[in-house]
TrEMBL record:
NCBIfam families: isochor_syn. Keywords: Isomerase, Transferase. This is isochorismate synthase. Residues 124-376 form the Chorismate-utilising enzyme C-terminal domain. InterPro entries: ADC_synthase, Chorismate_C, IsoChor_synthase. It catalyses: chorismate = isochorismate. Belongs to the isochorismate synthase family. It is an enzyme of class 5 (isomerase). It comes from Periweissella beninensis. One of its GO terms (molecular function) is isochorismate synthase activity. Its EC number is 5.4.4.2.
């Protein structure tokens, strides 16, 4: 049997009952997995660890739910992992010193008209709720940060074309991980720039991604915004909290390399403060041990974390499910990669929920945090606006 080309895999994805597509930011590794060999619903870290230890021959894909809140919405959003019956791995090949980039699949468009967003509803009370949280941060010196999210509800004219969705992701979001998980009529999509943890051959890699600003419309404006972000007190503080917490939490699991000053991570719509954190994982420790220890980092939860989780529950109007959660892949040998389910949406037929959050500190301005969440919804909005 010939190895199918990527378009065939995308068509298989659209036709499958259960499927996954997972790609790294450079798109040098792209996975497609189809149909269920084994699955687990609502597994927490321990349950998935145990389920995994029973053995699997193929990689496992899926995600955890963010916290202990359950959503009545769906099975998928309450946490779902599956071992596909078939997994295809498309990898860039090193051909005698020349790195051959894998060509991205392209279908000849047969459509005449793009899908349309016919209704949009935002949570307009969000800034008021955020102001209350800012007030309580101002009066409690021991509470530093909480990441609060909001939803946007959309109605589409027609159901999503999944072949077009994967192709548009590849075209529009070159610097992010892609994760598309399909379970019957439910689909969760993320174009996230944020890695929670990758483990390979005893090496662990994570990163702090927190602190954001928009992209400029010209190279000059873009550089000015980048400089502003690198010198902005609120964003630097927000970022420092995340780095310090990750380093502290990893101390007994890994021997970390030296941590550098924050750099910049750019996606087409937004730029972030970014600090990669790497090291040697202690023997006997696994990807899931590290993920359990780190989640939720203060880039998705807050400081102190227990307080932040209560504020999230009180302030947000929905259970997060896979939004802001560890999602990704675990290899049969226990290595793998989990990323964070942000810049994401949840689709059932023609109804779409977009999610975005922002780090709230005492010095935050509710209105500018609202704008930041709108910016973080842009990747999914732009995807939907261009779907066949
Ligand atoms: C919660 C989100 O972003 C987090 C990740 C990166 C930067 C963030 C920030 O600058 O606020 C957030 O902590 C989201 O995109 O929905």
């Amino acid at each position: 049997m010939n190895f199918p080309n990527e378009l065939v895999l995308q068509e298989q994805f659209a036709a499958a009952k259960v499927a996954v597509y997972f790609a790294n930011p450079a798109k040098t590794t792209r996975y497609y997995g189809f149909e269920v060999k084994k699955e687990i619903f609502e597994g927490d870290f321990q349950a998935v660890q145990q389920w995994r230890a029973e053995g699997h021959t193929n990689p496992i894909f899926g995600g955890f739910k963010f916290d202990n809140q359950k959503t009545a919405l769906s099975k998928l959003m309450n946490g779902y992992f599956f071992e596909p019956q078939t997994v295809y791995e498309l990898v860039t090949k090193q051909v005698y010193g020349i790195k051959q980039k894998l060509p991205l699949a392209k279908s000849t468009p047969t459509y005449k008209q793009k899908n349309q967003i016919i209704q949009q509803r935002d949570e307009t009370t969000w800034p008021n709720r955020i102001n209350r949280v800012i007030d309580s941060l101002l009066t409690q010196a021991d509470k530093q940060k909480v990441v609060l999210g909001r939803q946007r509800l959309l109605q589409l004219a027609t159901e999503i074309n999944l072949v077009s969705l994967i192709q548009q992701l590849q075209e529009q979001q070159p610097n992010s991980y892609h994760f598309v998980l399909k379970y019957y009529d439910e689909v969760f999509v993320s174009a996230t720039p944020e890695r929670l943890v990758a483990v390979k051959d005893g090496q662990v890699a994570t990163a702090a991604v927190a602190g954001s600003i928009k992209r400029g419309t010209t190279p000059l404006e873009d550089t000015k915004l980048q400089t502003a972000l690198l010198n902005d007190h609120k964003n630097l503080q927000e970022h420092t909290y995340v780095v310090a917490t990750i380093v502290k939490k990893l101390a007994h699991l890994a021997k970390l390399d030296t941590i550098s000053q924050p750099g910049i991570l750019k996606t087409p719509q937004i730029q972030h403060l970014y600090t990669p954190i790497t090291g040697n994982l202690k023997a006997t420790k696994t990807l899931l041990d590290v993920a359990q220890r780190l989640h939720p980092t203060p880039a998705l939860g807050g400081i102190p974390v227990e307080w932040a989780l209560v504020i999230i529950k009180e302030t947000e109007t929905f259970a997060r499910g896979l939004f802001a959660s560890p999602i990704g892949m675990i290899m049969p040998n226990g290595d793998g990669e989990l990323v964070i389910g942000i810049r994401s949406m949840y689709v059932v037929a023609k109804t779409v929920r977009l999610f975005a959050g922002a780090g709230i500190l005492a010095e935050s301005q509710a209105q500018s945090e609202y704008q930041e969440t709108a910016l973080k919804m842009e990747p999914m909005m732009s995807l939907l606006e261009n779907l066949a």
